[in-house]
Design a protein that fits this description.
27 helices; five-stranded mixed beta sheet; three-stranded antiparallel beta sheet; alpha+beta
């Protein structure tokens, strides 16, 4: 069966696994309600969480109504909550618990509270129904965000029609064509793909209003306030300060970036040289290529998949005492023959867990790089440790007769990024699966993965593995330096765009009813936080799919990057293979999963408490050019 789970040897097995999990959960609910207050209460709650998560994580069954409904009902089950409340109210028992057990008990209680356990029965039912409706709207919004728009082909000039898929008299526009060198193609794609769809607009409005209603029903002023409980930022006010201060610091640099792009557009298209939103990704790429001549084709031969995996293995071995070993899979254990299984082994602690690597392109495979948990780690009742199992998904090209799989610099960086998540899952060896590995606050979860990008861009690390697959020649140092510096070209404008998205997300999930329509808010926020003009009759927010999974938390990526930057500069920039720092990183940041407050983990690593200004400074200083490379290139 898939992942070695016997039920999953055929599609019907998913239903069987679900039924088994629901049955097991019912027994655990009964047990929790009849157990006297003590550490066992937390253990039973965690078993309940494990039983449900193993099925939900495995087949994403939380998208399945009956499962969602069941979880919502558990979160509003008064008797179940009472068993936990008795524990939390017993000061003698609570003071005898270790900090992780106390935190997990409090996190379970928090789940009850944000689901409205304190409400009367009628309001609790309303909260359950709102939860289910929100999930339906999320699914519908995601589907709508990826649908193409069509236009009568005769409206477009004949010479650009071939860029779009023809369907009778219509042309399908399925994306922004951001990399197309023809300005007109990008303009047409932008205006048609982002043309407002009335159904999608009403879905978004209902989603935002429903989230707000749920938050207010359970006692919060706004959805953002509810969503930011337990995060590094803690509240919307901190996020607002962070984004506004970052925007102020970026402002002049962004202006310079836009001026450079405008000059380049004037040079290539003198008739129509005003810089527009559809120009930013294209012209920043042109400037990077012109200034540093970074042709991915020159780098790929040095980054064979085998060499990159060897580089990761070497890094993990020297930093953390960990090695990756390929394991033979059993029949039916993987979903495609090119999926590889890696055992993660520590030099003294032994086997830590498994990573299934689904790295190659396949028809119908989603085009996204991601990490997801199949089974969380936890200490079982018999004293054994349940080993974590994760999947890493990439979209790499297959090897050919003449060459192995070769990665572009971007693919190599993504591989390191996703491996950062995997190591968090392997080393977040908590007693409870509810807080294992990456089950932590969203604004902390990206820190280990972004930190790995800093290693991937350091010559001392790259030099250990980047070899030409034919000649064995190492990648020259100046090529790595130029690659790193090229990423700083227009990086302020790129970051400014992320600030705009994060600010928009905060406003949408802030005070309701919204003062204006979502499109008017988009226009205002774009002018304040971005700088390129809003284009009439477009509604970019209807394609903002991150509003689903990152509602009120889109800022997380920027804040995680700030922390990763600080950790890199303070702890690893001097020596990226420093074993003592690697052990500190494991002990202070990776080992706790979500079992410790995120800001305390950051404080433990940096040995100081960072301020909003520190976060902003870390991000902005990353944009500064490296003087040595600049002089060499000059």
């Amino acid at each position: 069966g898939l992942f070695g789970v016997p039920e999953l040897s055929c599609p019907e097995g998913f239903q069987e696994a679900q039924d088994k999990a629901l049955q097991e959960s019912e027994q655990l609910v009964q047990k929790a309600c009849s157990t006297p207050p003590g550490p066992e209460t937390v253990m039973i709650f965690d078993q309940l969480s494990d039983s449900l998560c193993r099925v939900a994580d495995l087949c994403l069954l939380l998208m399945h109504d009956c499962f969602t409904l069941y979880v919502s009902r558990l979160n509003t089950d008064v008797e179940l909550c009472q068993s936990l409340r008795r524990l939390l109210a017993d000061e003698t028992v609570m003071s005898s618990l270790d900090p992780e057990t106390r935190r997990v008990a409090e996190l379970f209680m928090f789940d009850f509270e944000i689901s409205g356990i304190h409400l009367d029965e009628e309001k609790r039912k309303k909260a359950v129904n709102l939860n289910v409706r929100i999930l339906d709207l999320c699914n519908e919004f995601l589907t709508g965000a990826h649908l193409s728009n069509k236009i009568d082909k005769h409206v477009l000039p004949e010479h650009i029609r071939y860029n779009f898929t023809a369907e009778g008299n219509y042309l399908q526009v399925a994306g922004l064509h951001a990399d197309c060198p023809d300005d007109l193609v990008r303009e047409v794609a932008y205006k048609i793909f982002l043309y407002p769809n009335a159904e999608q607009l009403s879905r978004l409005e209902e989603l935002l209003a429903s989230r707000n209603s749920l938050a207010q029903l359970v006692g919060y002023d706004t959805f953002a306030q509810r969503a930011l409980q337990g995060t590094m930022a803690k509240n919307p006010e901190t996020v607002r300060q962070f984004l506004e201060k970052l925007s102020d610091q970026l402002s002049k640099r962004t202006q310079k970036d836009f001026e450079m792009m405008t000059k380049m557009k004037m040079k290539l298209n003198p008739q129509n040289s005003k810089l527009m939103p559809w120009d930013h990704p294209y012209y920043s790429g042109v400037l990077r290529a012109e200034r540093y001549n970074i042709d991915p084709g020159l780098y790929c031969p040095f980054f064979s998949l085998g060499a990159c995996m060897e580089g990761l293995n070497n890094l993990f071995s020297r930093l953390l005492g960990i090695s990756l070993y390929a394991e033979q899979t059993k029949r039916g254990e993987v979903w495609s023959e090119d999926v590889r299984k890696l055992a993660v082994v520590h030099e003294t602690e032994g086997l830590l867990g498994y990573i299934y690597c689904d790295f190659f392109q396949r028809p119908d495979k989603p085009h996204q790089d991601c990490h997801f948990t199949v089974r969380g780690g936890r200490l079982k009742e018999n004293g054994e440790y349940q080993l974590p199992v994760v999947v890493l998904m990439l979209s790499l090209p297959h090897s050919t007769r003449s060459a192995p799989t070769l990665l572009s610099p971007g693919m190599m960086e993504n591989l390191f990024h996703e491996m950062g998540h995997a190591m968090h899952s392997m080393l977040g060896r908590t007693r409870y699966q509810h807080v294992t590995g990456t089950r932590c606050s969203t604004d902390f979860a990206e820190v280990p993965s972004i930190l790995m990008e800093y290693f991937a861009n350091d010559y001392r690390v790259v030099n250990q593995f980047a070899r030409h697959y034919k000649t064995g020649q190492p990648l020259p140092k100046n090529m790595v330096s130029r690659l790193c510096e090229s990423k700083k070209v227009c990086a302020a404008a790129d970051m400014q765009l992320q600030v705009f998205y994060a600010a928009l997300d905060q406003i949408y999930h802030g005070k309701h009813p919204l003062k204006k329509s979502t499109t008017e808010i988009l226009k205002e926020t774009q002018e304040k936080f971005y700088g390129l003009p809003y284009v009439p009759n477009t509604a970019w927010q209807l394609r903002f799919s991150h509003l689903v999974g990152y509602g009120a938390k889109y800022y997380s990526y920027l804040m995680s990057r700030a922390v990763a930057s600080m950790v890199w500069k303070q702890c690893f920039a001097q020596d990226p293979f420093d074993r003592a720092m690697g052990e500190r990183y494991r002990r202070e940041m990776l080992a706790h999963g979500g079992g410790k407050e995120p800001i305390l983990m950051v404080q433990g690593m940096l040995q100081k408490s960072p301020s909003v200004e520190d976060f902003v400074d870390a991000l902005v200083s990353d944009l500064d050019q490296d003087f040595e490379t600049f002089i060499t290139d000059s």
